[in-house]
Structure to design on (106 residues):
């Protein structure tokens, strides 16, 4: 993650809880390296999970990271729309607006 796209709260947590955040980052890196799923797809999956748990900040983060890994806006939106029959239209609609917060910056 480059410093231009890191949320302020994340930077603050890294400063205040260095060991904890290092462990969280190491865990993320380790689980991504454990299988055949490429980085773009991994971030789309993690974004979908963030949508399902209504985590706006995590959706923002994984949209940024998916874009950096080569995902297109269409792929991001489609990954969210695919969730409609599973988690419902209201949640999907909210998530599309969260994704658009980031896509509008691009």
């Amino acid at each position: 993650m480059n410093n231009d796209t890191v949320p302020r709260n994340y930077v603050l947590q890294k400063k205040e809880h260095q060991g904890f955040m290092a462990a969280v980052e190491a865990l993320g890196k380790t689980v991504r390296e454990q299988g055949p799923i490429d980085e773009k797809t991994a971030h789309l999956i993690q974004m979908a999970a963030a949508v399902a748990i209504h985590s706006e900040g995590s959706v923002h983060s994984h949209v940024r990271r998916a874009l950096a890994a080569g995902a297109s806006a269409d792929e991001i939106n489609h990954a969210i729309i695919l969730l409609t029959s599973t988690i419902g239209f209201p949640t999907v609609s909210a998530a599309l607006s969260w994704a658009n917060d980031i896509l509008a910056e691009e």
